[in-house]
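INSTRUCTION: Work out how this chain folds

Fields: amino acid sequence; protein backbone structure tokens

Chain under study, with its fold:
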Amino acid sequence: MPETVIGIAGLGGLLMVRLLFRWISSRTHVQLVRLRQQGASERVRALPPGSVLFERWADEELRIEIGSNSEAAHG
């Protein structure tokens, strides 16, 4: 009987550790994406109209065109 209780407690502990790991991993990913987006926003603010910001990461790409040249738009 005590072996069963110890086994169940161990299994419960492992499940809690796994859940905690998933939560920390997800939270870290969200924070990294937020920081990446914040950095891109700051770089966009510093660029003049007509500029293009293109960034590539391992799993995604970002392309932002800042404003437009009125002559090019009607060109």
Notes: The longest helix spans residues 2-46. DSSP finds two helices and two strands in the chain. Strands lie at 52-56, 61-65.
